[in-house]
Fold this protein.
Amino acid sequence: MKFLIINGPNLNMLGIREPEIYGRETYDDLRRMAAEGCGKLGVEVDFFQSNHEGALVDAIQQAYFDRVDGIILNPGAYTHTSVALLDAVKAVGIPTVEVHISDVRQREDFRQVSYVRAACVKTIMGRGLAGYVEAAAYLKALLDGADPQQ
Ligand code: CA2
């Protein structure tokens, strides 16, 4: 089983600023933690990060051709603006979990909309980097046909 973890704009800057919102861990820490979590689940994992909407669409489409089984997607600010990402997730039909490091429900009004959510099997927010590992566990259980628990 293989998963792709896709991160959108500015998530490569993790740990550099706004630690009170996004924590002190870096994007490399995120990759390490998620790779370890996926390893424990017996799942192969790949990572992609871009600041560009079209590149994120391309990565979602490529996942289809690469026969990726599950996508973990933090679209960053494109969460709140992008119909193109919503359409891409719908187009590939790959089970996708939306992840946010912060609890966007507790933040500004403009963060209360998520376009991509309508195409996702689950949304995890406010769990920090652990949310990526929780998303992987959820997808693994779902794809195994087990009860993914919440
Ligand atoms: O909580 C999340 O994971 C977000 O997807 C992060 C996005 C934000 O636009 C979403 O509303 C919620 C922003 C990521 C920006 O990351 C930064 C990292 C370091 C310093 C500043 C921003």
User: Anything to note?
Assistant: Residues 10-11, 13-14, 16-18, 22, 74, 76-77, 79, 100-102, 104, 111 surround CA2 (CB under 6 Å). Strands lie at 2-7, 44-49, 70-74, 96-100, 122-125. The chain has a mean pLDDT of 97.
